[in-house]
Amino acid sequence: MIGSPDNATWQRAMKFAIRDSLRLCQALGIDPNELPVSESGERQFPVFVPLEFLARMKHGDPFDPLLLQVIPRSGENIVSPDFTSDPVGDNIVEMAPGLLHKYIGRVLLIVSGACAVHCRYCFRRHYPYSTAPKSIDHWLPALEYIRSDASIHEVILSGGDPLTVADPQLSQLVELLGDIPHLTRLRIHTRVPVVIPQRVDANLCAWLERSRLAKWVVLHINHAQEIDSSVVAAIHRLKATGTTVLNQSVLLRDVNDNIKTLQELCEQLVDIGVMPYYLHQLDRVDGASHFESDPILGLSLVEELAKRLPGYAVPRYVSEIAGEPNKTPVALSALSHLP
Ligand code: SF4
Question: Ligand 1 atom closest to Cα of 121?
């Protein structure tokens, strides 16, 4: 195991993250040819792995489930007509710069193009983040859109990862959202507390606690090995602000598509007070077909989880279909759009 830099600020953690596959392999004592690494995949979507996350990978194991999520492999070179650059239809629902209005009553605000880790299967790996708003001024049209539609009750901060934005800006944005009377809920989709747990610091907790909105944080953890004591502590700090914490996972071939791994993940989550909310069927994004698991397998895994665990520990198995008004439960009867 590789040590993580204790007490490093989250900004330093971002600065010192590993940004190329060769260094990543060297740090773990792995020959890049064992995987093998995809240079073109890496050019298209660069590597980004904080040392805190690296520290949870097994040295010398090219098939470590955390490593597989972040290293570009030759599978990224596979071209498949069913895999596209915008599999969930983000581009057609952008109502103001960075504001996606897909579902009734809630909108999604892309507040950052940056992430604290680059997940190779990310459905937004081709999103045109360079055009997304980057400051309060740029967010004004989105805020105006929300203010003018009283049917919107919830804003989801997304990205990229919203927690890569500095606290003064985030705090101001959340305050402005809190001033909109018909908003009742704030949801934050983030992987930062998992990969750089020290991001959940006093500053973040202060603005979160101050907001009058009901606060929900949805984490993204795919494997129990991602959860160490620093992640547990970060989750406790989040919960102490009155925030409800949920988790969503993606079913990933060779990472978590087996009953032992999923059961361990769900049990660890509920034991630390995080509800397993969704298990997503992979979104069919270009370059990620090697991560796709058969939904028949996914269904049997969730069925088995339901037999072994209490209901609150079993995530809903869903897929996102472009143009649909909500996530679609994966069911045998609805598999025609899936492989
Ligand atoms: S952290 Fe989330 S948005 Fe960022 S690359 Fe990973 S899955 Fe995509």
Answer: 7
